[in-house]
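Q: Here's a chain of 681 amino acids. Please give me its 3D structure as tokens.
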Amino acid sequence: MARQLTKVLVANRGEIARRVIRGARSAGIATAVVYSDADADALFVAEADEAVRLSGTAPAETYLRGDLILDAAARVGADAIHPGYGFLSENAQFAADVVAAGLIFIGPPASAISAMGDKVTAKRMMAAAGVPVLAGFTIGEDGRAVPEGGGDAVDIGTALAAVGLPAIVKASAGGGGRGMRIIADPAEADEAIASAQREAASAFGNPMVFLERYLSPSRHIEIQVIADDHGNTVALFERECSIQRRHQKIVEEAPSPFVSADLREQLCTAAVAAARAVDYRGAGTVEFIVGADGTAAFLEMNTRLQVEHPVTEAITGLDLVALQLIVAAGDPLPVSARQAGVNGHAIEVRLCAEDPAAGFLPVSGTFELFEIASPAGPNGYVRVDSALATGGTVSPYYDSMIAKVIAHAPTRSGAAALLADTLSRARLHGVTTNRDLLVAILRSPQFLAADTTTDFLDRVSGLTTATTGADVHRLHAAVAAIARHYVQRPAGTVQPAVPRGWRNNRATLEAVSFKAEDGESIAVAHDLTGAEPAMLIDGAPLPLVVHAASGTEVELSTGGVRRRYLVQLTQLADAGSLGTACVDSPLGHSTLTVLDPLPAPGSSGPAGGLTAPMPGAVVRILVAVGDTVESGQPLLVLEAMKMEHTIRSPEDGVVAAINVTEGEQVPIGAVLAELSTDTQQ
């Protein structure tokens, strides 16, 4: 029976909230959102027709309060709730509560969510439906392992011997890479299981985990399905999501370059069987692990819209949010969905506020500039689904993903080239991101050859440290010095232009020093006032020709090549700094801190201090004052964005002080502990 949808409340945040708002608006449906105090100024709040602040909760818990969300829906008169992904999207009780409140839940029935939400139960059901699965063990609260197929409990060592090494521990109640740990050695098992249980409890409210064989090398292949109330269950082909960090996808593409026509048919048939086994409705994804020989095994079913749904939309021409709304209204899937085909190739990357060179630590802060182009033409187009814009803040309370950038082209190589070029031209100032890593992946010979197994980042060297080179930082420092000179000229002077053919060879110089992202200090000495200005970098002359310059743009030639450099200068700075200069050019990107020649006393922090690399909560302290520690030894565990991050000792020494307690929230830069290298004390 058809149901009227007039207003949808989106029980989520960020880019997915914006995506659902766009989809609903295109269908003539009004929208409302809920928001935390941390998201009060977010774009999704401004874009919705109505917004309800959920007060009285910690920011990290706001979007998990089903009672407050239902109250908000009643206050705005919504007749449906779209859960997005994450948070309560796969919470069967929330789905049931929505329906009990007389509202439409834009997702599958609570019974399907419940069946697939417990990964162990789901595996049993899939095996019964003829879907291939991996054998495994459930880990009980007593630390013993129970075979998933039934039988007596055994110790962890026996379970590991049965599944084989390497093994993987997974959260039973969730996904998204949280609550997962790989065990390569039995000695690692106890800590891996305990850590996975803590992370699962934090992310999903359920500490249950299970153990199975970790297939490597392998590929992560998933099938998009959608089903309606009229007997139609459709598989919309595959996506490959093998390139991951921390078991979380960062590159997704459709179709998979690995999947043959026969394997595609096999996986699509299994995915449809999986959906029908739980009487599924709406959009969902059935995930498989596929070995090098094409052998496939069921991983899990995500009973929601996936982060990577845009690549399926790109190759099929369908709007999956629109299809969700059609199904939720009780209408049958249109012919376009039931008879969809594949057109071209699409690749998506997840742009995240994190530092790949520091073990993918999440980063928070404010984007002073956030610009990503969306080129479109006969050779392809780029789509940007972002959570924020210039001036937007990355909160420490939520996932680190800030945007999805998707390219579609007639060929895979064309999509990769277009996407890499778009990312390389993006201007992302103020917050560290994984942009350089993504560009390096897309341009790597291994990716272009479709050699994309789940161990990609481990076996392809140099990707996580792909950054702008030191020589480029030095050249960008010269550019920043030129831009600063033109910003700082007295009012009324002509700023934009430098005489054509300007060259450097003078000796009366003004000094300014910068620090690059890699910590390198760069001393620039210059005199830009005379007819023949001069430029030195770290004492060495820099041959260049400046064609034009202003406080935001410099055009110069070096080595006989003329380039344009875009500059953004900021004056807000921390102690010991006079601001920053962000420089973007065809050579790369630099964020240069302008160093204060007279920093405030004590601004460098205590000697031997270990500081928090991101805001978070201290969940475990593993050492005590007076303990002797070795380089690399775990000292503390922080939790940020629902993920655990281990703080390790940088050198051998003795713990001189512990400055935090378990459960304490700490800001970035907080001194957590202090070490002494004097082991005789």
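Q: Can you summarize the key feature?
A: The first helix runs from residue 14 to 26.
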